């Protein structure tokens, strides 16, 4: 006999329940600012009324271009309370890209602090909240679309990914919800909320009545200090953050008490095996969790730290939906062979997403690809190779940038890096490494470091050292944009 599904209510109604039952409990903290559940509820009521006065109605997408802060949560809940959908976007994007996104979203307005002038109103939280002080409850309504994050994908052209589920939560909280988030626990999210996973984690944690601790921006030592200070039982990181934390002097890392952490999740980018193993032994096996999926969420793999130690490099077994690896001829490949990963949502379930500004890549019978390459082992564990669009063809041999990046990042001086393929008259493409390093590391030192780690044709033929991080705080890197910029610069110079 199947288990009865939980009764679902709107996210606005769920916040109202928390405000009534645990109003004095902290809901969201960022730096020294904290909102209780009662304050989050009332302030989002007030903001929702302001948004309605500015023309936001049921079914709209509302672009939110804010840095991490308690105001981000206020804005999201205000939008949901009108039956509209938060559409998070990086506040650092250039004007042209922001304009393209708001046009796709058809957003009636943008909630942001940036100075860009767009073809629709851009209002700060302070400006909206100054429109009135009515923080009473609004009529209950459920937004038909939970969220609409953006993605540039491999092409660099923005698209929106509209979630297939409405903005709802279980009326009665389970003891432990999705992602092992414990009811009423403390969750630390130092990643930017304009990315899909951190925003989704904020939503899940607040719907479970947790205390969500954000950081204004990621800082490796400050993250450890927040763990010691706030005592979170649950932490979200991405591999770039993990690298920067691990690069701290050992005495600094050892100086903080991390004993409260029961679960540490990482996702959003491939994690170098050496780094993953270091964190498993540091945090403890079984507590370091990894998830692989797209924002599209057709299918998901999960692996625990304990499993990973016996399946080094894997991103786990499929836990939701289906995944298969297909060759270029459309035939399913056997274990051990690299091909393109295709995903399919669970049978009989509704669509998990809808694109605005793009078309899914469909093979057949509902199998869709996000462009990633990989293979399964005989036990059903998935291993990633790279994105098809990022693969480098060197003299007829396939070279996967992620493999080279992982090897480079083993060097203690490398903070972040990206590997791209540049045109080469002899080999077709040559491997070019863009490196953000410290301690004035030399090209010769990196070449020596890779000599025994990579076969000759995979080793970079050229290096470029940059002062700024190559990946953002969410671990994302746009290899296509990096490649195009360097090809364009060379063309102009010629």
Structural class: alpha/beta
Total separate domains: 2
Write out the CATH superfamily name of the largest domain. Answer: ANL, N-terminal domain
- CATH-scheme architecture of the largest domain: 3-Layer(aba) Sandwich
- Terminal CA distance reads 72 Å
Largest sheet: 14 strands, mixed
Let me know the average pLDDT. Answer: 92
At the fold tier of CATH, the topology name of the largest domain is Rossmann fold
Quickly count the helices.
14
Backbone shape: globular
CATH class categorisation of the largest domain: Alpha Beta
**How many beta-strand runs?**
28
Protein model, in words:
The termini are far apart. The strands form 6 sheets. Strands 2, 3, 11, 12, 13, 14, 15, 16, 17, 18, 19, 21, 22 and 23 form a 14-stranded mixed beta sheet that branches. The model has no long low-confidence stretch (mean pLDDT 92). The chain has 14 helices and 28 strands. It has 494 residues and is an alpha/beta fold. A hairpin with a 7-residue loop joins strand 15 and strand 16 (300-303). It folds into 2 domains: 8-269, Rossmann fold (3-Layer(aba) Sandwich); 391-493, ANL, C-terminal domain (GMP Synthetase, Chain A, domain 3), CATH 3.30.300.30.
């Amino acid at each position: 006999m199947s288990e009865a599904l939980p009764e679902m209510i709107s996210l606005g109604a769920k916040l109202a329940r928390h405000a009534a039952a645990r109003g004095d409990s902290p809901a969201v903290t960022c730096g020294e600012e904290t909102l209780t559940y009662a304050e989050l509820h009332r302030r989002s009521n007030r903001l929702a009324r302001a948004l309605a006065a500015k023309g936001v109605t049921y079914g709209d997408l509302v672009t939110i271009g804010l840095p991490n802060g308690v105001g981000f949560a206020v804005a999201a809940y205000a939008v949901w309370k009108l039956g509209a959908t938060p559409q998070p976007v990086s506040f650092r994007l250039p004007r042209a890209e922001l304009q393209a996104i708001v046009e796709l979203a058809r957003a009636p307005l943008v909630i942001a602090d940036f100075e860009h002038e767009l073809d629709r109103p851009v209002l700060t939280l302070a400006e909206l909240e100054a429109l009135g002080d009515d923080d009473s409850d609004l009529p209950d309504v459920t937004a038909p679309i939970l969220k609409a994050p953006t993605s540039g994908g491999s092409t660099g052209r923005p698209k929106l990914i509209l979630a297939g589920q409405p903005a709802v939560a279980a009326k009665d909280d389970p003891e432990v919800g999705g992602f092992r988030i414990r009811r009423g626990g403390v969750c630390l999210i130092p990643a930017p909320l304009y990315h899909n996973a951190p925003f989704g984690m904020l939503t899940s944690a607040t719907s479970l009545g947790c205390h969500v601790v954000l950081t204004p921006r990621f800082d490796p030592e400050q993250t450890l200090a927040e763990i010691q200070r706030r005592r979170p039982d649950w932490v979200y990181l991405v591999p770039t953050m993990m690298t920067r934390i691990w690069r701290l002097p050992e005495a600094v890392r050892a100086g903080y008490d991390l004993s409260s952490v029961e679960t540490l999740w990482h996702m959003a980018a491939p994690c170098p095996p050496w780094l993953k193993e270091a964190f498993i032994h540091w945090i403890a096996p079984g507590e370091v969790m990894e998830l692989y999926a797209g924002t599209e969420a057709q299918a998901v793999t999960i692996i625990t730290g304990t499993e990973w130690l016996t399946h080094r490099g894997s991103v786990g077994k499929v836990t939701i939906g289906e995944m298969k690896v297909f060759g270029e001829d459309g035939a399913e490949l056997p274990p051990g062979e690299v091909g393109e990963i295709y995903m399919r949502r669970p049978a009989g379930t509704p669509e998990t997403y809808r694109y605005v500004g793009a078309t899914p890549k469909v093979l057949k019978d509902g199998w869709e690809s996000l462009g990633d390459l990989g293979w399964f082992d005989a036990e059903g564990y998935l291993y990633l190779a790279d994105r098809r669009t990022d693969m480098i063809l060197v003299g007829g041999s396939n070279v996967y940038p992620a493999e080279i990046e992982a090897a480079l990042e083993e060097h203690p001086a490398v903070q972040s890096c990206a590997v791209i393929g540049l045109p080469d008259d002899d080999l077709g493409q040559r491997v070019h490494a863009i490196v953000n390093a410290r301690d004035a590391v030399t090209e010769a030192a990196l070449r020596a470091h890779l000599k025994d780690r990579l076969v000759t044709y995979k080793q970079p033929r050229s290096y470029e050292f940059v002062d700024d991080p190559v990946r953002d705080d969410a671990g994302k890197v746009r290899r296509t944009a990096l490649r195009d910029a360097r090809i364009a610069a060379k063309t102009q110079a010629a």
